[in-house]
Write a structure and sequence with these properties.
With 114 residues, the chain is mostly beta strands. It has one domain: Jelly Rolls (Sandwich). Helices cover 0% and strands 61% of the residues. It is built from no helices and 10 strands. The strands form 2 sheets. The chain has a 6-stranded antiparallel beta sheet, with no helix packed on it. Strand 2 and strand 3 form a beta hairpin. The model has no long low-confidence stretch (mean pLDDT 96).
């Protein structure tokens, strides 16, 4: 399956998991297109000052991969700065959150696997 940028679905997600602000969610592949292997494969654009609140992944796993800019992530109780080309994995009841503390938009891939 090939998808062109013009065919991708853009939605605005507000206050994700109790976070702040509005994020752009660009669905690259929809869950039904991934044959039950994953439920999210999206490019997220997080503006300056926006965040995704802390949440757990009990029965699935999520990967963040930074495409542009810088995000601050909390993995359980440890906080890290992730920059372009860096990634994070969360699963098995672990918690995470993300925040953009810079003055520019940041972009990352978000993949949630079953």
């Amino acid at each position: 399956m090939i998808k062109k940028e013009k065919d991708l679905l853009l939605t605005i997600k507000e206050n994700i998991a109790g976070g702040e602000g509005k994020l752009q969610n660009i669905d690259i592949f929809l869950p039904e297109e991934m044959l039950g292997k994953a439920r999210k494969f999206s490019k997220m654009i997080i503006p300056a000052g926006a965040s995704i609140g802390r949440h757990a992944h009990d029965k699935d796993a999520e990967v963040y991969y930074v495409l542009k800019g810088e995000i601050v992530v909390t993995d359980n109780d440890k906080t890290f700065v992730l920059r372009q080309g860096e990634a994070m994995w969360t699963s098995q009841g672990d918690t995470h959150s993300v925040e953009n503390k810079t003055n520019a938009d940041a972009e990352f891939l978000a993949i949630i696997m079953n």
